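Progress note, project year one: complex with zinc ion.
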Amino acid sequence: MQLYNTLTEQLEPLTSSDGIMRMYVCGVTPYDTTHLGHAFTYTCFDVLARYLEYSGLETITVQNVTDIDDDILKRAAKVGMAWDALVRQEVAKFQADLRALNVRPPDHYPYATQEIPKIIEIVQALIEKGYGYGRNGSVYYDVRHDRGFGELGHMEYAEMLATANERGNFPDDPNKRDPLDFVLWQAAKPGEPTWESPWGAGRPGWHIECSAMSMRYLGTQVDIHSGGADLIFPHHTCEIAQAEHFSGVTPFVRYWFHIAMVRLDGQKMSKSLGNMLFVRELLKTYSADAIRVYLLSHHYRAGWDADNATPDLQKAEAMVTRWRNALALPSVTEHGSETLNPMPYQETFSLAMDDDLSTPRAPEHLDELADAIANTSGDLQAAQTTLGTLAGVLGLRLSES
Ligand code: ZN
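Model obtained:
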C-alpha cells in the first residue's frame, strides 16, 4: 500500500517490520456535539485501520481525550456545570455518535488528566536537556534551542508565528524567551482545577499531552499518527519536538496521516464559527451506512464542501440499498449452475485502497459486484460473502436499519 506522508510530502510504501501498526489519532476536546468534520476524521482513521487488518496486519489504536482546556472551563462556567461532569457528558455523546456510525472504539482511550506522571517525566527531561525552561510556575519549550523545529508544517518562522497566533498562541506572554515558545506546563490560575508538579500546581499544555499518551501506549516510535489537517501546526509539530528530544528516537512518527477539512458555507466546519452539520441529526434521516459511504466518497486528503449533502446522501442511501438487496438474493447451487467469481472485484477494490486509501473509488467496485450478483442466477455465495467482507472493510454493516 502507498500512503501519503505529510512529513515528506510524498507517497510512501507502507511497511511494517513486525506486522503491527501502532496508530494514534488525536481525539476531541469534549465540549460540543460531533459534527461532520469529526465524523470524517474518525471514519477515515477507522477505515485505514480496518483495511490494514484486512491486509493481514495487526493494529493497536489509541485516541486521547483532551479533558482539560480553556474551552472546557469556559463552557462549564457558561452552562453552570462542573468541568469534569461536562467532560463525562460530552464524551458519552461523542462516543455514542461514533458508535452509531460504526466507528470502532480505540484499543486505548486515555484521558489527559490521568496521564500527569508521564507528562511530568517528559517535561522534566526536556528541561534537563535544555529544551525546556521554567518561569513563574510555568514551563515552556525553547524553540530557538531546537534547530529542526517546524519541519512537519513546511513553513518559515514568520508563517509559523502567524499561524500559531491564530490558533491560541500568546506571543506577548512576558515569561517567554521567544514568542513562538509553547507551554509544556502552565501555572495555576485562580479558580481553575490543578495538579501538583515539581514547578508548582498547574496543568499540562495541550501538545505535551499527546506526546505523553502516544509514547506511553505505543512506545517511542508511532507507525501512523493521524488527526485533522488543522493539527499539523502547531499541535503535531510540537508533539514531534517534545517526543524526539525526550526519547532520542527519530522519527517519532513513521507516517503522518492527516485528514482534510470539511467546509460549510465556504468555511471550515467548526465550533467557533458555528457552521456545522451534526451526525445525530443526519442519522434521523439516513442510515449509518449511507453516511459512511457519503463521507468516504471524498478522499481523505482533499478538503470538501458539505453544502450539497442532501442529494449526495440520497445517492449513498440508494447505493447501500442495492448492496443490501444483492446480499438478500437467493443463491442457487444446482449441478451445472453458474458460479459468480468475486476475485476481480476484490482485486480492483484492493488496488483502489492500496492507492493512498482511495475510498471514493472503492464503493464503485462494490457497486459493480452487487450489479453482477443481481444479474447472475447461480451460485452467488462467494460473491455475496466478498461483498459483505469488503463492505465491512469500509465499516458498513449492510443490515437493515
Ligand atoms: Zn493530539
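The pocket of zinc ion is lined by residues 26, 210, 227, 235 (CB under 6 Å).
The longest helix spans residues 309-328.
No further modelling is planned for this target in the current period.
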